[in-house]
Amino acid sequence: MTKDALKWLMVIAVLVVSISQSCVHGAPQVPCFFIFGDSLADNGNNNLLLTLAKVNYAPYGIDYPGGVTTGRFSNGKTTVDILAEFLGFENPIPPFATTNIQDIVKGLNYASGAAGIRAETGSNLGGHISLDRQLLNHQITILRIASILRANTLQTLQYLNKCLYTVGMGNNDYINNYFMPQFYPTSKRYTPEQYASVLIDQYTSQILTLYNKYGARKVALVGLGLIGCTPNAISKTKGITCVDELNSAAQLFNQKLVPLVDQLNTNLTDAKFIYVNSTGMSSGDPTSVGFKVLNVGCCPVNSVGQCIRSGTPCQNRSEYVFWDSFHPTEASNRITAFRTYESVDPTDNYPMDVSHLVQLKL
Question: Which CB contacts under 8 angstroms, 24+ apart, belong to 91-100?
Answer without folding.
Answer: 92/43, 93/33, 93/34, 93/35, 93/43, 94/43, 95/42, 95/43, 95/44, 95/45, 95/71, 96/45, 96/134, 96/137, 96/141, 97/44, 97/45, 97/47, 97/48, 98/44, 98/47, 98/48
